[in-house]
Design a protein that fits this description.
18% strand; flat; three-stranded antiparallel sheet
Length: 68
């Protein structure tokens, strides 16, 4: 499976995150390191999500946000 990630250069190296997986982010001193790190992070994210969702009914609900 493929996931789109965003890669941004920072003062310390590169930040990388996966917009479709909230909170799934990593970093590296080089582009290559950052991309390798996010692959590991995505794998861990998906494993934890699968564990947390075992035997639990979940569903999406839409909520309306009213602006003042």
């Amino acid at each position: 499976m493929q996931y789109q990630v965003n890669l941004k250069q920072s003062e310390e190296g590169y930040a990388v995150w996966c917009p479709s997986l909230p909170g799934c982010a990593s970093q590296g001193t080089t582009k290559e390191e950052a991309l390798n790190n996010i692959q590991d992070t995505i794998q861990s994210y998906l494993e934890v999500a699968a564990e947390l969702n075992q035997g639990i009914e979940s569903y999406y609900v839409e909520v309306e946000l009213n602006h003042a």
